[in-house]
Amino acid sequence: MSTSSETISNTPPGAARDSSSEAAAPAAPVRGTRLTLAGASLGRPGAPALDEVGLDIAPGEILTVVGPSGCGKSTLLRTLAGLLSPLAGEITQDGKPLTGPSADRALVFQEDALLPWRTLRANVELPLAIRGVPRAERRKQAQTWLERVGLGSQERQLPHRVSGGQRQRVQLARALAGRPRAVLMDEPFGALDAQTRAGMQDLLVEVLQGTGATVVFVTHDVDEALFLGDRVALLGAGGLLAVRDIPRPRERGAHDDPARVALRRDVLTSLGT
Amino acid sequence: MRRYALRVVSLAAALGLWQALTSWNVDLWLRFSQFPTVTDVARTFAARVSGPDYWTDLTDSLARILTGFLLAAVLGVATGVLVARSRLAEDLLGPVLEVIRPVPAIALVPVAILLFPSNEQGIVFITCTAAFFPVLVSTRHAVRALTPVWEEAVRTMGGGRWRILGSVVLPGALPGVFGGLSVGIGVSWICVISAEMISGQYGVGYRTWQDYTVVDYPGVFVGMVTIGVLGWLTSTAVELLGRRLTRWLPRTAYVPGARPPRPDRPVTPAPAAPAAVPGGARSEEARDEHLV
């Protein structure tokens, strides 16, 4: 892939997220982390999905990743999470090579990954329990996170008793409760209807405010990618096609802005759709 | 209420048929003339219950089956998890287990007699072996069938091997494990009674066989009824415990033996009044603390 080598040098714009400077969010310390892929080949042994990926994800940025189904988006995310190791090349977090999964990098799954025997709150408590937070404290924190995603009154429900959108909100709360420095999201809203999805996008932006975490958000929906991201990475057959900056501030329905229209057309052309 | 009535009617009809066939000495192809009547059995039963031996037999059999079954439950779950999670354990233990598995536990009586210093331990051994395999097999299947994403989720939260075992594998496999336990408790009864008949001193099986050898047929039936009732009670206990521990399973509308379906709680938009949750609703909310 000759195009990917150009995009490596495509440094992200001001790493600070626009949302953290606007709004009244308390100036929490930026806890983001830098994730770097250099000449990385990803996939399962014998079935490589992505070749020669070079990508530098700055602390605190939201990088969205779009591409057609089966192009390796999930593979990229699972590798960043540490569930898969790269077949070749190097992946580092703040300069140190990744060595397996870590609480530092939370993964939000596309499918329902809540433990069905735990209540919503107990699910959110799990990463805290793993970190050794005392019971009373983790209960309080989990409750706070559930309130932030609008499920404060359903903390004692079991996952199968709430809707798919609500379960995804709990997954988000669970991922953030562990105070990760990077949040990796694998088409988290892919199975939701359009209405719920738009609400979830707004919620995500709101909830991420002040966490300072680096976000990698995979989706097959170009508009979702352009709405959420600071930058968007385009994946195509076998590799990374390009990385584009996205104009800010975030605005839904600013479809007559020529820069955005041009970007959207450019992205769609690059993806070959 | 109606369902309880039906159950009582079913039992009563069976007893009535028995009484009718035996008191009229029906001798068609099946010969009921030698058969004790329900009233004979009831009289003997009343006499036995007031004597001391009956209760000694009962508690002896119960102690044997509970020891054997609990050992089997612990060993079966542990081995099942080990074999399902570790390729090394599977290669090392798999062949041995597969060769022993088809041997009926009751055929192990000679082994038990050779191995153990007392009959008592031999009987517990046989009971345990009988229940061990159903528990092992269903645990192995249940662990292998766990949704992979549960484990991945815990790993990406920084959870290690033991955390995965405690928070994902054991609770997730529990419904399957209880399938094995239900089968296991049934097989345990078969084996504890058979083993007692062969080599026991005291015990319901021993007494039943004793009565047969002295041609006390009503006594044999007292033994059989006792075994039936005890078996029913213990398997119900296993069943209830299982249902209690796996309350989180999405429920189908019909659950045999369960109370009639509760009125459904408002699930989705809890109308902004978090304070007042109706008292009855609490019952279904998970008590998952003990699984953590």
Q: How would you describe what is shown here?
A:
- The complex is a heterodimer of chains A (273) and B (292).
- Chain A is of the alpha/beta class and 273 residues long.
- Chain A has two domains: 2-104 and 181-271, P-loop containing nucleotide triphosphate hydrolases (Rossmann fold), CATH 3.40.50.300; 115-179, no CATH class.
- Helix content of chain A is 35%, strand content 23%.
- Chain A has helices at residues 2-8, 18-21, 73-81, 120-131, 135-148, 164-177, 194-208, 222-228, 258-271, and strands at 35-44, 47-57, 62-66, 88-93, 96-97, 105-108, 182-186, 214-219, 231-236, 239-245.
- In chain A, the strands form two sheets. In chain A, strands 6-7-8-3-9-10 form a six-stranded mixed sheet, with helices on both faces. In chain A, strands 2-1-4-5 form a four-stranded antiparallel sheet.
- In chain A, α7 links the parallel β7 (182-186) and β8.
- Chain A is globular, with a radius of gyration of 18 Å.
- Chain B is mainly α and 292 residues long.
- Chain B folds into two domains: 1-35; 37-245, MetI-like fold (Orthogonal Bundle), CATH 1.10.3720.
- Chain B is built from ten helices and no strands.
- Residues 267-292 of chain B have low confidence and may be disordered.
- The interface between A and B is large, with 39 and 34 residues.
Q: Which CATH first-tier class of the largest domain in chain B would you pick? A: Mainly Alpha
Mean pLDDT of chain B: 82
Please give the number of β-strands of chain A.
Answer: 10
The residue fraction in helices of chain A comes out at 25-40%
Residues in helices of chain B, as a percent range: 55-70%
Largest sheet of chain B: none
Q: First CA to last CA of chain A: what distance?
A: 20 Å
Question: Major beta sheet of chain A, specifics?
Answer: 6 strands, mixed
- The spatial strand order of the largest sheet of chain A comes to 6-7-8-3-9-10
Shape of chain A: globular
Tally of alpha and pi helices of chain B:
10
Structural class of chain A: alpha/beta
Choose one word for the global shape of chain B: globular
Give me the oligomer status: heterodimer
Q: Roughly how many Å apart are the termini of chain B? A: 37 Å
Order of helices and strands of chain B: HHHHHHHHHH
> Taking Cα atoms only, what radius of gyration of chain A do you get, to the nearest Å?
18 Å
